[in-house]
Amino acid sequence: xxxxxxxxxxxxxxxxxxxxxxxxANSYKIEEVYSPxxxxxxxxxxxxxxxxxxxxxxxxxxxxxxxxxFMYYAAVxxxxxxxGGKPFNxxxxxxVVTLVATILIVTLGTLFFFSARAKIFPGxxxxxxHEGATDDKFVIVFNASDIKDNKDELYRLLKxxxxxxxxxx
Amino acid sequence: xxxxxxxxxxxxxNKSLGQISQDIVRPIDAKTPRWWFISMGISLVMLxxxxxxxxxxxxxxxxxxxxxxxVGWGWAIINFVWWIGIGHAxxxxxxxxxxxxxxxxxxxxxxxxxMTVVAVMCAGLFPxxxxxxxxxxxxxxxxxxxxxxxxxxxxxxxxxxxxAITAYLLISASFWYFGMVPDFATIRDTTKSKIKKAVxxxxxxxxxxxxxxxxxxxxxxxxxxGIAAVLVVSVHSIVSTDFAVSVVPGWxxxxxxxxxxxxxxxxxxxxxxxxxxxxxxxxxxxxxxTDSHVxxxxxxxxxxxxIMGTAYxxxxxxxxxxxxxxxxxMFFKNRVFGEYAFQFWAMVICNAFIPQLFWWKxxxxxxxxVFIISLFINLGMWFERFNIVVTTLAKDFxxxxxxxxxxxxxxxxxxxxxxxxxxxxxxxxFRYIPMIAIHEVKSVAKYDKPSHERKHRNxxx
Lengths: 169, 461
Fold this sequence. Notes:
The complex is a heterodimer.
Chain A: E1 5-10, H1 13-25, E2 32-34, H2 40-45, H3 52-78, H4 91-118, E3 138-143, H5 144-147, H6 151-160, E4 165-168
Antiparallel strand pairs in A: 1-3, 1-4, 2-3
Helix pairs in contact in A: 3-4
Chain B: H1 4-7, H2 17-29, H3 34-60, H4 75-99, H5 109-130, H6 157-190, H7 194-203, H8 211-244, H9 256-283, H10 291-321, H11 325-336, H12 341-353, H13 361-364, H14 367-394, H15 409-432, H16 438-445
């Protein structure tokens, strides 16, 4: 069977980052980087962007309007009831529930966005590319078709930066 | 960047990344120790007593408690506020230190968050049972119903409290859980047991550690951290409004929200300290929870204790300065020198004076002393809740309505039951969940290397 991926396995962050920067400088196409903890340079260097913060903010705005609207409906339109002489629309005291419930909605919504975008959800079977990547190894993955022309050069580059192991799978 | 020379090492023992995973996962793979079974047995017995008390409460009603017309809130509300306060620190600890980028949080936050979730569950039981007809609990949810539709009162602090506690429980539980997902993946990929691989693999939600996952994971942590910090402050402020929006002397004060939030952080940090000193002792985690971690928490406690002392003093001072005879009576003739002087002074001594011992380095570095002082703080905070709830209700404006209060054995058993629930929950956490956030500790391990080894990685994150 033809190999699909080539894995450069590193033992620490320093070597990984040196190699990563060199690879970027030589414009190699990197499929993905796996690491036991988030590394800022990799996250920015891979060029992915997340719009989760925007989504969370948008959800917050919707939640605030929705909650205030709902309380107005319940307390003024649906069944107006006088509590201790307060007006039906006792707005300032609606803020408390609005604040807390908004936080709850944004949290649950953000978890949902995260689950959907990072594809992390209950019952998912992990596609483990290298078992050490959640323990103590840092793995750079190349797509075999991207690097077939200059494979030897890539091997040399990875070895120069102290790669521990190169796996083709 | 983190300066090791100045702040001390975060992790002792020059561990490699692999060793960090091994050391933290070891208690999960090891044989369950005997003390675990013994403590679990005790906790379950306590839990059973609590269940008995719940049975009596539900079948006979809250007439089985020691409450009366004047003192309508007794141990149930004391314990509710006490547990919520303890439950506060987990998230406070984790999130405030996350926002302030305090790297030393990584060894302790998992235990603090676990404690939060269990403590909030314990707290939630009391208002539920206090409703009397607990099976009608869902009436408190605002949903279109066939009773009118009759909606809940959105102006009531008791409803605010319900929303706040529910939100807090769900949010702290999810914050805790998603913090563990990468660690479950670590166990999945390192364990040799097939059962563990399957079980932890399921809970790991398919985590692999790719840069796409980490990018969103970081975003998630900061969004949740940012908004949950607001929640931490608001939840206990709301708990305090249960009291502060009333017009009874001793409750009707503007100092209550900050006073409650600080008190919550105080009791929670004390409980965190109790737990981490136990983890250190029982599981030999000294390399992760180092002396400097304990030192840092005790320093926070000195500071918070001073705020507590100031709050107590302010309350008493204002009672005199306001020239309101009812306030004056409540504080001077009821609390400070009156019938409830014991509870008042127990509170002041445990919360404002005893923690001052932490000024001495000798005491800060003596783990037994730290453990004992942390228990005193927990006790003191319980007395504070007693002081607030009972002393005010027992003697209000109408002397003819004055009444004493002592708990019935059912109320005491209910409290013991929650202690059992807390104990059992914490023991389950010790046994089955990585007690320290593995991936977070790994991410700070590099700061302990001598600077010549980390050539160009002097960034913050």
